Structures are given as structure tokens and as C-alpha cells.
């Protein structure tokens, strides 16, 4: 999301300035164009050479050096976002008071882009009434504040005041300022992960699904501007974006109920979960004890969520499913597309070494109802998710 975006990073005098190095590295790696401006006090905490090398740009620190004058107005206009991280107590107070005694403050005062700050200070300073008042003032000016973390502080104390971690700052920038708008206003429902069908209080029938593909899809739909709701079976996967809503379920029947409660308000529905097709007919209330050499379990069919949605969807809803096959893949996938009345089916085969449960890659063929098919090479699940989202965006566009 941040690729090609222009970030002006302001670094102030705080021990957390060392994290600015990592932040520059992450931003540049993610494809952003980064220029760094520091206050005089920041130079005591972090090397200008390191920041200029990593940002691939000269670090700016003075308004004028005798021969040249840094054009603070143009710098404030150049940036898509001005990020001040770490923000010290002192610079916060100056921002709130409208002071302009260094280049960073001059740029801040003339910035026409959004300004976001990541404060860093000791807990007592963080709770001081003047800090509270100054934060409220800059929020009132329209600046955004990335919340501080709880943890070990430079003083050795534990408490509030740690600067947010660089990874989290990058995520904050992406989700707050750099989402695309192709799917703005659209609501997307995604099922993800496995389901567990209880046999007794100790055992269950499950499968190896990790939920990675479902979460990769959720993040790509979110990046395209959609409101995203994931209904997810038991998995350790999660999303870094606070804006993606996740409902956790365990069994196929819970997944059915949860998806159904969201279905009618969803414009795009993608069923990526590996839902159990059968569950034990009777769930024992006590642990089954070991007795004879063999044991039989009576199983009954679960409800097919994708099929049910294919029956009840309206013409404005777009429904997609997955087909996980081990043989005769194309035939089975096209059958599923038709039988479940989906608009799109994504085939992955367990015969492909790069596809399947728990892997970070997938290899898919996508089929639509018009007889089109898209064959992709093996890619990361994130790249596969992007391909699926792009095809859905194209199909929605063609339908207009
Ligand atoms: N699906 C579902 N509810 C179920 C079973 C499957 O929503 N109870 C969805 C899956 O999320 C997927 C699609 O149906 O999008 C196909 O799932 P898959 O396991 O490949 O096929 P099944 O329909 O279960 O058929 P089979 O196991 O016979 O291949």
C-alpha cells in the first residue's frame, strides 16, 4: 500500500530515536520514498550517516547553513504524510505552542499533508498534565497520535510511554492513509481456517487448514478499500490491520450461523474455509474411555455454507469459493462452481508441491461462470490473494 508514497520522517531527541533507523529501513523496503528531518537534540541519539544511508537521501537538520536554505514549505508539500517518530515531550510542547525554532518545526507548521506523531517518553512525563494538554491541543489541530505502548522504559521503569514499534507504525500508516479505493463502500465476508467437530470434551475431527489464504484475502480486500469481516475457525493466524473484523468460531455449525448473520449485508462473499463435511452425530459429554480394539463413530453431514449462499444470494452479491482437490481437479472444480451456484471458484490441488495447507505459497486456477479461466504460477498467498481480488474487481466492473 505504501509503495511509491512520500514519507517525511521527523526524528526528535528521545532515546527511542534508535528505532527511527529500523523505521526508515522498513519504509524504504516497503517501497516508500523517505526523507528524514531531525531536530538538533535528535543528533545526540542517532547517527545522521545511518539515517541518510538508509533513506538514500541527505538528512535535513538546519533551516539555512550559510549558503543554502532548506525550503520547508516545499518539503511540507512534497510529503504524502509527515510522520514524527519519536516525538519528544519538548517537540510536542513546541508543536502545541506554535514554536518554530528548528527546521522540523518549520516544516510541521507549513505541512499541507496529514501529520502523525508517535510519542516516546518516560511514564511520569507521559502522564504530566502539560503533556496531556499538549497532546489534546495537537489532536485538536487535526494531527493524529499513534498510541504509546506499555513496557520497559529507558529509565528502567515499566509503564506507559514506549514508542509504538516500527512494524506497527508502518501498519498504522498503511491502513490510515494508503488504502486504495476500488472497493470503497463494499462489504466483504470471508470464511477462513478449519473447523473442529467435537467427538467428546477432549477430541475432535479437524483438518490441516491454517487460515493463511483466508487472511491473505482479507488483507488484500482491505487494501482495496473494502470493509472486511472474517469468520475464522481455530487457527493461530491473525491480521495486523485493526480495521479488519474477525469473528472466531469452532465448529461448522457455528461458522454457518456466524456467516449467515453477516451474509445479507455483504456485497462480496469468499468462502475460503476448509469446513468439515461431516460431524459426529452425537457429541459425548464425557471422555470416551478406551475399551475394545475398534470403535465406530456415526457421522452426519454438516451444512454446506457456500452452497446455501449460492441458493439465497441476490443478483448484486458476488460469491466465490475454493476447491481443494487431489485428483481430476478441473472437472471437480467446475462441478463445484455450478453445483454451488458460485460466480467464481479458485482451484488448488494438493498434488502441487507449492500449494496446500500451512504453506506460504499457493498455485491456483480460477474459473468463472462465463467459461473463463485464469492459470497462475506458484506465488505467495498474498500475491495469489491479490490476483483473486483483482479478478473480482474486474468482474464487478464488467457487470456495471
Ligand atoms: N464449503 C462450505 N461449507 C461446507 C463445505 C465446503 O462453505 N460445509 C465451501 C468451502 O469453503 C469451499 C468450497 O465449499 O469454498 C469447496 O470446499 P471443498 O472442501 O473443496 O469441497 P466440498 O464441497 O467439501 O466437497 P468434497 O469434499 O467432496 O470435495
How is this structure best described in words?
The longest helix is centred in the last third of the chain and has 19 residues, at 381-399. This protein folds into 2 domains: 6-177, Rossmann fold, CATH 3.40.50.1950; 187-399, CoaB-like (Rossmann fold). The strands form 6 sheets. Strands 12-11-8-13-16-17-19-20 form an 8-stranded mixed beta sheet, sandwiched between helices. A 5-stranded parallel beta sheet has the order 2-1-3-4-5, with helices on both faces. The chain has a two-stranded antiparallel ribbon with strand order 6-7. The protein is of the alpha/beta class. It has 13 helices and 21 strands. Cytidine-5'-triphosphate binds next to helix 11 and strand 16.
Amino acid at each position: 500500500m505504501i509503495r511509491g508514497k512520500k514519507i517525511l520522517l521527523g526524528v526528535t531527541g528521545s532515546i527511542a530515536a534508535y528505532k527511527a533507523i529500523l523505521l526508515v529501513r522498513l519504509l524504504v523496503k516497503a517501497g516508500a520514498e523517505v526523507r528524514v528531518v531531525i531536530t538538533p537534540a535528535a543528533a545526540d541519539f542517532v547517527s545522521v550517516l545511518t539515517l541518510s544511508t538508509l533513506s538514500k537521501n541527505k538528512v535535513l537538520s538546519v533551516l539555512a547553513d550559510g549558503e543554502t536554505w532548506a525550503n520547508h514549505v516545499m518539503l511540507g508539500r512534497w510529503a504524502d504524510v509527515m510522520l514524527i517518530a519519536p516525538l519528544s515531550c519538548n517537540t510536542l510542547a513546541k508543536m502545541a505552542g506554535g514554536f518554530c525554532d528548528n527546521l522540523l518545526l518549520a516544516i510541521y507548521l507549513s505541512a499541507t499533508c496529514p501529520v502523525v506523531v508517535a510519542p516516546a517518553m518516560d511514564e511520569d512525563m507521559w502522564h504530566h498534565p502539560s503533556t496531556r494538554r499538549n497532546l489534546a491541543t495537537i489532536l485538536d489541530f487535526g494531527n493524529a497520535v499513534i498510541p504509546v505502548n506499555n513496557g520497559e522504559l529507558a529509565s528502567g521503569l515499566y509503564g506507559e510511554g514506549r514508542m509504538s514499534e516500527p512494524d506497527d507504525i508502518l501498519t498504522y500508516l498503511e491502513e490510515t492513509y494508503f488504502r486504495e479505493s476500488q472497493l470503497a463502500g463494499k462489504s466483504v465476508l470471508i470464511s477462513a481456517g478449519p473447523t473442529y467437530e467435537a467427538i467428546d470434551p477432549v477430541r475432535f475431527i479437524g483438518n490441516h487448514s491454517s487460515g493463511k489464504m483466508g487472511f491473505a484475502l482479507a488483507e488484500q480486500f482491505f487494501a482495496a478499500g473494502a470493509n472486511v469481516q472474517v469468520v475464522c475457525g481455530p487457527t493461530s493466524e491473525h491480521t495486523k490491520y485493526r480495521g479488519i473484523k474477525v469473528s472466531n468460531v469452532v465448529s461448522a455449525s457455528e461458522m454457518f450461523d456466524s456467516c449467515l448473520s453477516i451474509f445479507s449485508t455483504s456485497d462480496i462473499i469468499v468462502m475460503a474455509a476448509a469446513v468439515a463435511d461431516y460431524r459426529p452425530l452425537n457429541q459425548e459429554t464425557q471422555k470416551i474411555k478406551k475399551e475394545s480394539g475398534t470403535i465406530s463413530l456415526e457421522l452426519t453431514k454438516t451444512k454446506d455454507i457456500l452452497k446455501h449462499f449460492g441458493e439465497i444470494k441476490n443478483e448484486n452479491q458476488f460469491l466465490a469459493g475454493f476447491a481443494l482437490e487431489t485428483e481430476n481437479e478441473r472437472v471437480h472444480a467446475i462441478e463445484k462452481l455450478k453445483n454451488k451456484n458460485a460466480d467464481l471458484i479458485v482451484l488448488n490441488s494438493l498434488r502441487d508441491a507449492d500449494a496446500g495447507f500451512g504453506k506460504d505459497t499457493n498455485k491456483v486456477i480460477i474459473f468463472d461462470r462465463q467459461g473463463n479461466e485464469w492459470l497462475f504460477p506458484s506465488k505467495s498467498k498474498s500475491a495469489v490473494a491479490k490476483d483473486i481480488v483483482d479478478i473480482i474487481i474486474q468482474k464487478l466492473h464488467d457487470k456495471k
